[in-house]
Design brief:
With about 575 residues, the protein is of the alpha+beta class. About 35% of the residues lie in helices and about 20% in strands. Strand 17 and strand 18 form a beta hairpin.
């Protein structure tokens, strides 16, 4: 009989990746993106990712003149994406003979300019500069044994990330990308090259380094500069499915942010070519994301539910231990790609999305995702946050503190703004407001605990001042606004601490002791609200919550009465 070609193990694992959920909303269901995403969330959030196919009525015209679109690119070498090791030969060349350390009394930390805490001060074996372990980004838990090279010196010799490519206009980029794809597939008719073939080639190059090729990706392009692909007029201009609008949806928490943050409030545009990739990551602050493919060839995604995020972190560190030793914050840098085969082998469920033009892809809170493009295409993406995101947002900020990662916005400020703005808003229901109140109670309980720990300092002369005050000219100023903790980079809002010895340095309440060794009378605690005021805000919020809850009960009772009347009438008719 005819022999069938046996599928290799290398190809077989790809066929075992299940498809993520796909949804086809009706025109009525499609009216409100937030309501629809909440409706599908119980199913879709388990996979961490889903595809939404809009009804036929959704057909916005692409709004950018491609002949005039100019953009920057980044170069990606696929064989370097799954980077299990650093180039140790380079690393050894860096290390000179051990220097004699200067007298410790002369040694100052290059980050904070402080000379205290000598027992956790380390010297770089390349540049000789000193660093507190807690001042490093990210901080080290202990003083490393043997030789150590600072992050700045290592970066000069060990490339991590993607090199800047040239700027292109779209017609030139498309010409280059199409020529590359045709050459790669040996002049075949590109319509005959299957999605499965492209996927297999991509992972062979990433995982097995079968070929060293370099591709270009026009990623993270600010739509306030290059323009959005969504039209600003017509019904599509006003729709909340237009990604320029979704962050300002009435039930989006991000509408209470004061700044138009690019990539979060203002969408980013992405111009891809075959094999151009986005590495494993979850969104800033573990937020939701929504991506729309305007035109071109499909975009392939791999997603992992947020419930598996901790296990994912663990497997990544096991797969690239040496890289994580040097770059503990690697997963924040969007430069690490590990094959889904390895993740599935370690018990992490991965699902696939093949996004077609006109499709939306939604990723859920804390859901890691990665992927690549099958050819030239153009997508647009933005973040959004709704109340069920709040616990994920809190955990993300704590993780930022651990790695001394700069947050995009203040989580505390967002909660306070939303609570004050949403309390009297009729469109905000009791469940939504209840989630917000729960997060308010969490962050204020922690604030009270940290202030209680400073009682001894206050009893010994530490002064307490309001952060919002007036200068001699009568102008209002905010001593905290725009400042981050020197040690963990936490964005300060409710409180901060300073000292006369270095008034420009500000810390969160977790790091008051690390700031300096000065007596309490030189210290200052800056507060936005007193504890009594925080309690009062909480009490008022609880009153509004009870009113909303009662109104909700009354509405449910009314619905039940109406349904009972309806059933009685039906019986009479029968």
């Amino acid at each position: 009989g005819k022999k069938t070609k046996k599928m290799s193990k290398r190809e077989d694992w790809l066929s075992q990746i299940p498809d993520a959920p796909v949804f086809h909303p009706t025109a009525k269901e499609f009216q409100d993106p937030i309501a629809y995403i909440e409706q599908i969330s119980p199913i879709a959030s388990r996979a961490g990712i889903c595809r939404i196919v809009p009804p036929p009525e959704w057909n916005p015209q692409f709004a950018i003149d491609l002949s005039k679109l100019n953009f920057s690119t980044r170069k990606q070498n696929l064989a370097h994406l799954q980077k299990e090791k650093l180039h140790l030969s380079q690393k050894k060349k860096l290390i000179p003979a051990k220097k004699t350390a200067p007298p410790i009394e002369k040694l100052m930390c290059s980050v904070c300019d402080g000379g205290s805490h000598e027992e956790i001060m380390i010297l770089c074996d390349k540049c000789g500069h000193g660093f507190h372990t807690y001042c490093l980004v990210p901080p080290l838990k202990s003083v490393p044994k043997g030789e150590w090279i600072c992050y700045s010196c290592l970066q000069k010799h060990e490339e991590l990330g993607f090199e800047q490519g040239n700027d292109y206009d779209f017609p030139t980029f498309e010409q280059i990308a199409d020529a590359f794809k045709k050459t790669y597939f040996k002049g075949r008719n590109l319509s005959e090259v299957t999605a499965e073939e492209i996927e297999k080639e991509f992972w062979d190059m990433v995982e097995h380094k079968t070929r060293e090729i370099e591709v270009l990706y026009g990623n993270d392009l600010d739509t306030s500069v290059v323009g959005s692909g969504f039209p600003s007029d017509s019904k599509f201009g006003k729709s909340f499915w237009n990604l320029n609008n979704i962050a300002r949806h009435p039930r989006s928490l991000l509408r209470e942010l004061q700044d138009d943050i690019t990539g979060v409030i203002v969408p980013w545009l992405y111009i891809g070519m075959v094999f151009s990739a986005f590495c494993w990551h979850h969104e800033d602050h573990a937020m939701y994301s929504i991506n729309y493919l305007h035109f071109g060839e499909p975009k392939v995604w791999y997603g992992i539910g947020g419930a598996h995020a901790a296990r994912f972190d663990e497997v990544m560190r096991q797969t690239m231990p040496e890289v994580f030793d040097v770059y503990p914050d690697l997963l924040f840098q969007l430069v690490a790609m590990v094959s889904p085969r390895i993740l599935m082998k370690n018990g992490i469920p991965v699902s696939r999305v093949r996004q077609m033009p006109g499709n939306f892809v939604v990723t859920f809170p804390a859901a890691y995702h990665a992927g690549f493009n099958q050819g030239v295409n153009c997508a647009e993406a933005v973040n959004f946050a709704i109340p069920d995101w709040l616990p994920f947002g809190y955990e993300a900020v704590q993780r930022y503190r651990q790695f001394k990662r700069h947050p995009v916005f203040s989580h505390e400020e967002l909660i306070f703004n939303c609570l004050q703005q949403w309390a009297t808003r009729k469109t905000v229901g009791s469940e939504t407001f209840g989630n917000l109140l729960k997060e308010f109670n969490r962050i204020t309980a922690i604030e009270k605990q940290e202030r209680a720990k400073l009682k001894d300092l206050q009893n010994n002369g530490m002064i307490v001042v309001r952060c919002v005050a007036k200068n001699p000219d009568g102008e209002e100023f905010d001593s905290i606004e725009g400042n981050n903790c020197l040690f963990c980079d936490y964005q300060l809002f409710l409180s901060a601490s300073t000292c006369e010895c270095s008034p420009e340095k500000m810390v969160c309440l977790l790091h008051v002791e690390q700031l300096c060794v000065c007596p309490a009378k030189k210290r200052c605690l800056h507060v936005r609200y007193t504890l009594n005021e925080i309690d009062e805000i909480g009490q008022q919020a609880n009153i509004f919550f009870r009113k909303k809850k009662k109104k909700r009960k009354d509405q449910i009772h009314l619905i039940l009465l109406k349904s009972q009347d309806f059933l009685k009438n039906q019986r009479l008719k029968l």
